[in-house]
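In this supplementary section we document a worked example of the pipeline. Step one takes a protein sequence of length 141 as its only input; no multiple sequence alignment statistics are reported here. Step two produces a three-dimensional model, which step three serialises into structure tokens for compact storage. The input and output of this example are shown verbatim.
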Amino acid sequence: MSTVIVRSLERLQNEVLYGEGQRLVIDEPVSVGGEGAGPDPYTLLLAALGGCISMTVTLYARRKGWPLERVTVALRQQRVHASDCAECSESKEGFVHRIERAVTIEGELTAEQHARLQEIAHKCPVHKTLTSEIVVADGKE
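The serialised model returned by step three reads:
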């Protein structure tokens, strides 16, 4: 289980403490009142998903002994009307968050290996978390 502590700093900046003494700063862009001192929360969410996809594909290829050279994941998040979302099966009213992703896999791979790695990209733990029911519960302070 991961533990992350987030503390407000000045203006919209927040300090994120994680791991063993590791730290990063999150902020909002200048265009929305921040100072751009770090990634915004949605950028971190996309980075978590993209990093997980890349790591999952890399670990799978490594375990199989396949000649994977690089994985590049491009992601974009937007809010769209549920009625405009062709992939949405549950929500038909209001807005939904839609993440578009493109996974580029490089290496001397066969067509079958490449196709399998694209399938594996959908199986990363963060992808599974984001596409399942999520409960955010009050915990201890």
